[in-house]
Write a structure and sequence with these properties.
It is a single chain. It contains 8 helices and no strands. By secondary structure, the chain is mostly helical. The two termini are 15 Å apart.
Length: 129
């Protein structure tokens, strides 16, 4: 499990809930390397519409891409904060389940993370022990 796997799960959740514009924003904030890792992951295989969206984003990504690219955990932080406000707790738990202990701790320590999401991250971390 890794941050790209959690990111893949977040994108899958967004697309499954018909939030394509939000999925596009998430993918636009990812570097080209992260998009490639989403497609090549052996642990979290993208299928159907989700795979198509990621492949399209990668194919259309220009070399002079000007959108601010963030590390996967920072991208996840924005998604998880929004989901917390909207009450998507089950989706948050599914994404957190994809992170390993180090990434859960790093996510919980990010400044700007919603306190409830940080608490969920810490609870997931302690369940792994």
């Amino acid at each position: 499990m890794s941050a790209p796997d959690a990111l893949a799960e977040a994108v899958h959740q967004l697309i499954a809930e018909r939030h394509q514009p939000n999925a596009d924003v998430v993918l636009d904030r990812c570097s080209r390397e992260v998009l490639v890792s989403l497609l090549e992951s052996q642990t979290h295989v993208l299928t159907g519409r989700t795979r198509y969206v990621v492949e399209t984003k990668l194919r259309l990504r220009r070399v002079d891409h000007h959108t601010e690219e963030l590390p996967p955990l920072k991208v996840l932080m924005h998604v998880l904060n929004t989901w917390c406000i909207e009450g998507w707790r089950a989706a948050i738990h599914r994404v957190l389940a994809e992170l390993d202990a180090g990434e859960l701790a790093a996510l919980a320590a990010l400044p700007g993370l919603d306190p409830e999401v940080a608490s969920m991250s810490r609870n997931s971390l302690y369940r792994e022990d």
